[in-house]
C-alpha cells in the first residue's frame, strides 16, 4: 500500500536522537530551547513554545486566552476534530464557519455575515480557529482585519502548513494573528514522533503559554507573588498541565527542521506533477491562490462518486484518505445541537474530496502508479 503520507528519517535524525539518549537530560535540557529557536528563526517570530502535540498546542492557545464556559469559539467547519475540541477542553462553546468548496478554507463572506449577525449578543466569539487546509494558507489579511474589527482573537491552526507562506511571509510569523499552532505528527511537514508548538509575537501570551505548558508553575522572579525565599522556590499560579516536549523529540525536530526547505520543495514539485498528470482526468485539484504558497501537506482532488473511487483505489493498493468530514457532522458535535446542513460549502467540499499520496520520498514511479490507478477507476 502506498500511504497518503509518511515521515522521512535519515541517519542524521537517528544520530541526533541517540546523542540525547546518551546525554544527561532526556527532557528539560537544552534541546527544546534550541528547537524553539530554530522554529522562531524559520518562522520569523519572537516567541515559540514547543509542546507535546498539536492538540495540546491548540489547548494551550485557548488556555492562554483565558477561554472559559460561556465564551464562544468559532472554527473552520472542515478540519481535524482537535481544532474544535481545544475550546471544549476549556468549557467554551463552539460554533462553526463554512468553507469555500474549491479550497476547503474558511469563507470570508460567511465569517463577515455571522460576525455582523451576532454583534452585541452574548454569542459574539472570543476567538476564531482558522485552519490552513492541506497546507494552503487561508485568507489571513481579510480574516485578521475582521477579527481586529470585532475584537476576536485569531488562532491559526497551521498543523498542515509549516513551510507555507502568505504574501511572502512565513506561516507562523503571526503577521495577522495572535498565535499559530503546529503539529509534528509523522504525516505532518516535519516530525518529532508526537509534538507541537505555538508561535506568537506577544510576550504576554508567550509567558501564559509557558505557564500552562508546565503545571501553571513559574520560577521567573518577575512573575512571582513574593520575593523568592530560596533557590528551591516556585509558584503554581494557574491550573496548568504537563504538555512538555522531551529533548529526545526536540533533537529529532531540530534535525528535521534543517531539511524542511527541501521537504517543501519536494512536495511542491510532486504536486505540480500531479496537477499536470491529472489535467486530462475528471479530478479537480484544490484551487490555489496566487498570493500564497502551499506547503502541500495534502494533495486533495475533487471527484464525482467519491466513495466508489475511494474503495476502488484502496483495493488497488493506493492509500487514499479523506480530509475531512465536516466537524459539525461528527456525532459528538451533533449531540451538542450542531446541524451539518448549515454548512453547504463544507458539505460540497466533503462529498467530493479525496487525498492522494503525497510525501517527500514518494517516487515518480509510485506517483505514476497512483495516477494510472485513478485513471482506470475514473474512466472505467
Ligand atoms: C494533526 C492536526 C491536529 C492535531 O495535531 P496532533 O499533533 O495530532 O495532536 C490539529 N489540527 C489539524 C488541522 C491537524 O491536521
Overview of the molecule:
- The chain has 380 residues and is α/β, with parallel strands linked by helices.
- It folds into two domains: 11-257, Type I PLP-dependent aspartate aminotransferase-like (Major domain) (Aspartate Aminotransferase, domain 2, 3-Layer(aba) Sandwich), CATH 3.40.640; 260-378, Alpha-Beta Complex (Aspartate Aminotransferase, domain 1).
- Helices cover 38% and strands 14% of the residues.
- A seven-stranded mixed sheet has the order 1-9-8-5-4-2-3, with helices on both faces. The chain has a three-stranded antiparallel sheet with strand order 7-6-13, with no helix packed on it. A three-stranded antiparallel sheet has the order 12-14-15.
- Strand 2 (72-76), helix 4 (82-89) and strand 3 (93-97) form a beta-alpha-beta unit.
- Helix 3 packs across helix 4 (82-89).
- It is globular.
- The structure holds pyridoxal-5'-phosphate.
- Pyridoxal-5'-phosphate binds at residues 53-55, 79-80, 82-83, 131, 157, 159-160, 183, 185, 196.
- Belongs to the DegT/DnrJ/EryC1 family.
- One of its GO terms (molecular function) is pyridoxal phosphate binding.
Low-pLDDT ranges: none
> What is the CA-atom radius of gyration, in angstroms?
21 Å
| Number of distinct beta strands | 15
Cross-sheet strand order for the largest sheet: 1-9-8-5-4-2-3
Query: How many structural domains can be distinguished in the coordinates?
Result: 2
CATH topology of the largest domain: Aspartate Aminotransferase, domain 2
Derived from helix and strand composition plus strand pairing, the structural class reads: alpha/beta
How much strand content do the residues show? 5-15%
CATH architecture of the largest domain: 3-Layer(aba) Sandwich
**CATH superfamily caption of the largest domain:** Type I PLP-dependent aspartate aminotransferase-like (Major domain)
